[in-house]
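batch_manifest entry 22 of 60
target: DNA helicase RecQ
source organism: Kocuria dechangensis
requested by: lab member K.T.
priority: normal
notes from requester: please return tokens only, no post-processing; we will run our own comparison against the previous entry in this batch. if the run fails, retry once and flag.
--- input ---
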Amino acid sequence: MLTRVWGYDAFRGQQAEVIDTVVGGRDALVLMPTGGGKSLCYQVPALVREGTGVVISPLIALMHDQVDALEQLGVRAAFLNSTQTAEERRAVERGLLAGELDLLYLAPERLPAVAGLLDRARIALFAVDEAHCVAQWGHDFRPDYLGLTLLHERWPGIPRIALTATATAQTREEIVRNLRLEDARVFVSSFDRPNIQYRVGPKQDARRQLLELVRTEHEGEAGIVYCLSRASVERTAQWLAAQGVPALPYHAGLPAELRRHHQARFLREDGVVMVATIAFGMGIDKPDVRFVAHLDLPKSIEGYYQETGRAGRDGLPSTAWLAYGLQDVVQQRRMIEDGEGDRQRKRAQTLHLDAMLALCETVQCRRQQLLRYFGEESGPCGNCDTCLSPPESFDGTVPAQKLMSTIVRLARERGQQFGAGHLVDILLGRRTERVVRMGHDELTTFGIGTELSEAQWRGVVRQLLAQGLLQVQGGYGVLALTDAAGEVLRGQQEVRLRRETEREPSPRRPRAGAARPVLDEPQQELFQHLRAWRAATAKEQGVPAYVVFTDATLAAIAQARPGSLEELRGLSGIGAAKLERYGEAVLRAVENP
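--- output ---
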């Protein structure tokens, strides 16, 4: 079936074991990275077991594309959601009751409304996609997911499979508890995405830095740029478009129809860059996203991992790039302090942010630290910025003491608190209007920090915040010492800091355009011809290009140059339905490039 329907020769990793578990009628909890093949873990059992597989997914906007992709494979799939007319819903319901569907997609909020319908149907299994949405302390909580205990209570004899690409041990426990999966077999795959290169650079002029990344490494390739605010999304998309980059904005404040249009363009066209808040991305199945960039600091490692995981789902080399500066830290701390939630909630948010800061400031392999957060040990990866351009660390105790002494003197002698910019002016001996007016040029610490540049001092502040030696207070982002700072001031604790560079180090890597399988010149010409054929075919059918064939499959065709349907049949990603639908057209394209 795997070869006939999907065109693959073998299962990957734990897929076969998961499938056997669900086919045998047992529950399963599957933690598998984005691009690791989670969908097959419920799609294959749904075809093998008698009845219809019901998939609970929070992604109404993407259900249509998911169903289109399955129909291309010859799988009988449908969805029920609020975008359909009453007659469309009735047609799907009739197909379900008649046993004519292999898979049915539902949003979690629709489950109570269709429970009576499901009682009358033959159900093969329930699949809960994006299962981390049930975790109330997670980064992507959806209240509707708490109602999914109905699956266990109402249909106890039907196997359930819960799937997620991101879950710490705590989140995993919440999934088990809230979905009543105590007896489920748990499958935890490696969280490593070796094809993604993780890079964190000092934020100097973030948009210019982003443009350099696009132009030097990802010209004409699809990417996602994440910004913290809607206003920043709009400004960044407009600026990139003005520089000739086909960029589109996406955030919850845009009209729903415009969001759908932009999402459709991103999925269906090659080389589109989506600039978005974190409202965009969950469930995006586009395999050829070559880079994910963050212009603002993510709130947690879970969020960062999930967002960067949208790059390189096809397994080809991709970039996860983050521009990170002092203001990001101050802003995130202030958002937690001023935000909603009780003390326990804010404590959890602070711990999430601390882990993210530690990842940004590490002098060790970033991938090692990222995987360790999810409980997985590994060696240095050789494919992140700290491995490719190892940062220097130095004894930063004296600079830390100078900064802390300035904060202490202002607080004790004058009852004043200030943000980083004013403190750096004092340390650098700058007689600004404000410094002079407030008499801060008379402080004993005035001008004692000229051994470091402004950028380096901002790096010191940022790292001391990350190490928990400084804290942000109040709505104006003023800095204060934490209790832990006392030992540093007294010379009882050394402070190690990474040395700030004036420019982001250039990683030693080839252009990402070389990310595709190595093709010689004639093969590359055929590959581009096949992409053009695919784009025209997808547009004609109104489906995303990757639904027809992925880049990896087109590259395999370009390398093999098949001359018959039989030769085409043996290539990865070409199952029986696609061979029948597209085989002759592909052979014509190969023959006449």
